[in-house]
Amino acid sequence: MDDDWEKRTAAAWADFEDRPDQDGARFRARIDALVAELPDGSPLGPFERACAFDSTGHSDRAVPLYREALARGLGGYRARRARIQLASSLRNTGRAEEGVALLTPELDAPSDELDDAVRAVLALCLSSLGRDREGLSLVLGALAGHLPRYRRSMAAYARRLAEPEA
Q1: How far apart are CA 62 and CA 54, in angstroms?
Q2: What is the mean pLDDT of residues 144-164?
Q3: Residues 6+ apart with CB under 8 A from 125
Q4: How far apart are CA 2 and CA 19, in angstroms?
């Protein structure tokens, strides 16, 4: 889509983030109006709609839209975001195992600014499945890289947590 559409979409999201009391239905209508400008078959449409449903507390309605966006060929950064958000929505709808299956390959994907989000959502999915040690290991491993000190220690603790208990 063109730069103007991207800017208007970003502005809609910024406005939504700045006003947490905003009516969810009104926000989704704003996103729907932007989506209506997209060419038929664009993967951006279901992606933006999924994000809007997710952000307004409707994970159940977001799941099929994320899947549709990915099936239509959503690529790059947005595809990774879609997988992270889909995994979170799956967890929220009682399907954490599907979230784990979706995000585990992302641990080996090329690194970007979403790496920690992958680990955080994967940790939540693992925790929902009673696999708290694995989840904590992922979170500590992600946190270690941001610490001004104790990086080696925290990374080592993270690795030990992932090892089978003795």
Answers
A1: 6
A2: 88
A3: 87, 90, 91, 96, 97, 99, 100, 103, 135
A4: 26
CB 137 within 8 A of CB 162: yes
Q: Where are the alpha helices (DSSP H) in 95-150?
A: 96-103, 115-128, 132-144
Distance CA 2, CA 72 (A): 19
pLDDT at 8: 97
Rounded CA-CA distance 29/49 in Å is: 9
pLDDT digits (tens, 9 = 90+) for 27-84: 999 999 999 999 999 999 999 999 999 999 999 999 999 999 999 999 999 999 999 9
In sequence order, which residues have a C-beta less than 8 Å from that of residue 52 and are 6 or more positions away? 27, 28, 31, 32
User: What's the CA gap between 56 and 44, in Å, rounded?
Assistant: 18
Alpha-carbon gap, residue 46 to 32, rounded angstroms: 10
137 CB-contact burial (10 Å; exposed 0-12 / middle 13-18 / buried 19+) = buried
Length of the chain equals 166
Evaluate if residue 166 carries a pLDDT over 70. no
CATH architecture of 3-94: Alpha Horseshoe (1.25)
